[in-house]
Amino acid sequence: MSDSASLGILAFEGFEELDAVGPYEVFQNARAAGANWTVEMLATDETDRVTAAYDLRVEPDGVLAPDAGLDYLVVPGGGWNDGGEGGAEAAGARALAGDEAVLDTIRALHEDGTTLLSVCTGAMVLSAAGLLDGRPAVTHRSALDDLRGTDAEVVDARVVDDGDVVTAGGITAGIDAALWLVEREWGHEVASDVEDTMEYERSTDVYRG
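Predicted structure:
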């Protein structure tokens, strides 16, 4: 890819920190290595601060909107199987999967050409939006049975690339998926530079649909 691009990472209450921050670091290092894109953390609503699963507080750069014109959107997971007061739907990916306004926005962005990358149980959010129907996908191992209960085709791989939808397994797999996307869009040299900078040896367990 030679033109500049825009990439958003969704930050919602209860998101898994590493699901979002791992790819964020990959993408920002890719910028330093030559990837011509902007990288932003986007909240689901107007807010000054979003609190993640382990109480990390993030100040978003903006708000996810259907007319955002994003080239890529990363949807992290988090809290899919959590219990406790308020139940699993109080925050996290399960709550997001029940938020029709957010799902509509994700659908609209995808229809307009945004490539989606889910990490961990972020795949369940894409599934709730109907965007994994009939497509190969993966999620965190704890949610694989839930994903099998949908119309997605569950694949045994760390990263599943189906073109305009890329899904990753649990948590650290988001780093592998982000590096895969960097290589796919900006080339092997850029991806290798990022690996060297982060001292990370990525997985080659990638399924291409």
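Summary: The longest strand covers residues 5-11.
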